[in-house]
Amino acid sequence: MAGNARYTALLDACVLYPIAMTDSLMSLASAGLFAAKWTTQIEQEWVTAIEERRPELKGKLGVRRDSMREAVPDWEVPESAWKALVASLTLPDPNDAHVLAAAIAGHADCIVTVNLRDFPTKITAPYGIEVVDPDKFIINQWDLDPLVAIAAFKRMRSRWKKPEATPEDFAQVLERGGLPVTAQRVREAAELI
Prior knowledge:
- With about 190 residues, the chain is of the alpha/beta class.
- The protein folds into 2 domains: about 10-135, 5'-nuclease (Rossmann fold), CATH 3.40.50; about 145-190, no CATH class.
- The protein contains 11 helices and 4 strands.
- It has a 4-stranded parallel β-sheet, sandwiched between helices.
- It is globular and about 50 Å long.
């Protein structure tokens, strides 16, 4: 972490659950637009959530987990760094204290989550941590460096198992995956993606 000047985002389990959202975030992080961080506890949360919803995937998500780790080699905020902070943090949902603790310990600039209400600004701001919706976060990265973002989404689309999928098909998947504004940007850049 020392010497890393990139914007750092702690990714909550809820943004690592939907595959289109996860792939978008991993694609932008691996393109160097930001440093992505999470913990093994956050990892276990999204794995458990998927396995509960889709029991046929129980024990089969290791490839996805390992691919995420490979895409972002410096992903982990170790438990030893954040565990002691949890008891000092009070959030509306006590189960989210570990997320804020990891963001603090991981020197994150923001927490990317769909559960914005679970991280009130009055609690996160004193730590210099912003709480951002994933769609807004992706658009912010896009606005900072449109060419890198477009290239990242082009590479993401090229990894699809159905190469005949059109940019509109791609945009629809992003939209269904909780990223409507990102989907619109993809539509606007369809000729490049």
